[in-house]
Each structure stands twice: as structure tokens, then as C-alpha cells.
Design goal:
Layout (H helix, E strand, L loop, with lengths): L2 H16 L2 H14 L8 H21 L5 H16 L4 H23 L6 H34 L3 H11 L3 H10 L7 E6 L3 H11 L4 E6 L2 E6 L12 E8 L4 H18 L3 E4 L4 H7 L2 H10 L1 H7 L3 H13 L4 H8 L3 H15 L6 H16 L2
Parallel strand pairs: 4-5
Antiparallel strand pairs: 1-3, 1-4, 2-3
């Protein structure tokens, strides 16, 4: 076998190892276990970049050359992405090292069976190390520059990215990638913007990639992972997800409805829209609220000066799960006053708040009465 045939055997060996799906899966699992800083990333994200790096290295080995400009551009993109995801460069390099070690260990195991001598395999490893050194230098530089830029990134740029992400469709997927967000499993968080909300933003950005901005008077965050309940304490926030980038427009609307539902009932903390689905659906139908108002305008008129106290009593009673004493304590009235006002509401509207759907209509009507301009 001449030297060209010998080298072809080495390349075939490396290609065979890199192509083993089980080995790639175990390498990715090893990365996620041994490098906790990247554990928040999706398996597909880690596997995709690992596969691409190893494929590029194999092409370089086959041609016995250093990295091409195209390969270095890919590495720069990886450095930028990981920097925007908040992954330290040390963790990026450790992740690459874990994958490299798995590949070369496997290559040594099967080298003899494929006719490749250890000496030739060491020559290939030396060439790979030269290629990898140039790649690491470009990776470190791209990561460093991006992190430095990230520290002074203007809010206008972040707001523009957020708007694109929330548009949905293919534009959202591109914007999410530019922001360093994964291609799936995204969450949308909505809360009232204030000084405390800025603290929430800071805490969440330390845990996973996030994109925040004020949209239509609300602070909206797109997050790479579900926020911990303690992350928004003591504020009130609405949450929707997980969703893909193309679904974020709908997720934003649902998270805003979750916040509205939490505010309507005084529920504190983090509220996923699924935890207040019925109430969110009610609050999403302003057209039906108007119909409800119009239909029961005679009842409001008939109640006269007592209309607002009656609405307050019925709403408080329902939100206290029909606990008369609890509602009375909240309103600072006698329990019998609550009972009497619930009765007057029933007589004026014809709605029976003791039934399931009657209670929904009663709460909705009273809230609309009390919140209309």
C-alpha cells in the first residue's frame, strides 16, 4: 500500500467514526454532562455544531491542509452564537475537547481492525491539532469581540430584534438565530415595566439566552428556557410556551392574556396561560363583553345607585369561591350584606351565579361593569 493509499485509509477511518450516530449521541450527552454551562442548549444545537466541526476537520485531513476561509467563517458564527447565548468561551472549548476526545478514542479502538497503524493515526492527529489550533484562535476571537459588543449593544437593536422575533414566520426564525436563541422551545414572558421588572430581566438573562423589550406598554421577554417561578417574585407575570419562533406572535398574545387574567383575579407571581385558560379566553373577547353589557344595561339601570356595590359584592364573592365571610371581610361589610347583594344581582339580571356557567357570566359582567370607562 503506497502512502496515498495509507492516508486514504486514515481518512476513511475518521469518516467512519464521525458518521457513527451512536458515538455522536454519546459525545453530545458527554458534553451536556461534563460542561454544565451548555446543558441549557438543545441537543440538536450541540449535535449540529459538533457534526459540522468534525465534518470540516475530516475534509481538512483528507486534503492535508489547514482550515479554509469558509471553515473559519463557520467557526466565527459558532463563536458569535455561543457568546450571545451567554456560554463562556472556556465552556465552549471544553465542549469541543470532550467531543474531540470521544472521536479520537474511538478511532484508536478500531484503527488496527481497519488496517491503520498507530503511527499513521498519530500523524493524522498531529495534522488535526494544527487545524484545530487555527480554528480555536478564530473561535476565541469571535467570542471575545461579540461579548465586548454585547456589553454595549443598544436597546434599539435589541428592540428591533424583538419586533422581528414577534412577527412570527421565517423572519422570526432568522431573528431568533441572530439573537442567539435556539430554534425551538422558546417562552414568552410579559410583565408591567418598572424598576423591579428590570431586576427580573437581569436575573433571567444570567440563566439562559433572553431577548427583552417594551412592546405596547408591556415588558416582553423571549426566553430560551422556562423561567423559574422565583425568577419573577414578587411581581406578577404572564407566560406562554414552549413555542417555535414562527409561533411567537401567538405566544406573545397568550402571555399578555395570562397577565391580564392574573391581574383580574389578583393572582401573584408567574402565571402560565394554561393555568388561567378559561379566564384568558373570556378576557380575549371584548366583542362578547360588549354584547353582555348591552344585554344587561336594563339591570344596571334598575339597580341605580346600588349597581356598583352589587357588582363589587358579586365579584368578590365569586373570587372568594362563594365564601360569604371571605368576601365580606374583603369589602368590610356584614356577610348578610353580601348575601343580599348577590340576591339583588340575580333578580336584576336573571343570571344564576350558583351554576357553573352562570358564575362565569356573572363574574364577567360584574368585572366589565366595574372596569368600563
Amino acid at each position: 500500500m503506497d502512502s496515498r493509499d495509507d492516508w486514504s485509509a486514515v481518512v476513511d477511518l475518521i469518516e467512519r467514526v464521525v458518521g457513527e450516530e451512536d458515538l455522536l449521541s454519546s459525545s453530545v450527552a458527554g458534553v451536556r454532562t461534563m460542561v454544565p454551562e451548555v446543558a441549557a442548549l438543545t441537543t440538536a444545537d450541540i449535535a449540529g455544531h459538533t457534526r459540522a466541526l468534525l465534518a470540516a476537520a475530516t475534509r481538512a485531513l483528507a486534503a492535508r491542509r489547514g482550515p479554509t476561509q469558509a471553515e473559519l467563517s463557520f467557526v466565527e458564527d459558532l463563536g458569535v452564537t455561543r457568546a450571545r447565548q451567554g456560554v463562556p468561551i472556556e465552556a465552549v472549548l471544553r465542549a469541543v475537547h470532550v467531543a474531540e476526545r470521544a472521536i479520537w478514542s474511538r478511532a484508536r479502538e478500531i484503527a488496527a481492525a481497519t488496517g491503520v497503524s498507530i503511527e499513521l493515526l498519530l500523524d493524522a492527529r498531529e495534522l488535526y491539532d494544527d487545524w484545530a489550533e487555527a480554528v480555536r484562535a478564530r473561535l476565541i476571537e469571535a467570542h471575545r469581540v461579540t461579548r465586548a459588543d454585547h456589553g454595549v449593544r443598544t436597546s434599539d437593536r435589541e428592540a428591533a430584534l424583538l419586533r422581528r422575533v414577534l412577527e412570527g414566520g421565517s423572519a422570526a426564525a432568522l431573528a431568533a438565530a441572530e439573537a442567539g436563541l435556539p430554534t425551538g422551545g422558546l417562552w414568552v414572558l410579559v410583565l408591567r415595566p418598572d424598576v423591579a421588572a428590570a431586576g427580573v430581566r437581569q436575573r433571567l438573562s444570567e440563566q439562559a439566552p433572553v431577548l427583552f423589550g417594551v412592546v405596547d406598554g408591556l415588558l416582553v421577554g423571549v426566553l430560551a428556557q422556562a423561567p423559574p417561578r422565583s425568577g419573577v417574585t414578587p411581581l406578577r407575570a404572564g407566560l406562554a410556551g414552549p413555542a417555535g419562533p414562527e409561533e411567537l406572535a401567538a405566544a406573545r398574545r397568550l402571555s399578555a392574556l395570562a397577565l391580564a387574567a392574573a391581574e383580574a383575579t389578583g393572582r401573584p407571581g408567574l402565571v402560565h396561560v394554561a393555568q388561567a385558560a378559561a379566564l384568558a379566553a373570556v378576557l380575549d373577547r371584548a366583542d362578547l363583553a360588549t354584547v353582555l353589557l348591552d344585554h344587561h344595561q336594563p339591570a344596571w339601570t334598575a339597580l341605580g345607585a346600588n349597581a356598583e356595590p352589587v357588582a363589587l359584592a358579586v365579584r368578590a364573592w365569586l373570587e372568594a369561591d362563594r365564601d360569604v365571610n371571605g368576601a365580606a371581610g374583603q369589602l368590610f361589610v356584614h356577610p348578610n350584606t353580601v348575601r343580599n347583594r348577590v340576591q339583588r344581582f340575580t333578580e336584576a339580571t336573571g343570571i344564576d351565579p350558583y351554576t357553573t356557567f352562570g358564575a362565569v357570566d356573572a363574574w364577567w359582567l360584574c368585572r366589565t361593569w366595574l372596569t368600563r370607562g
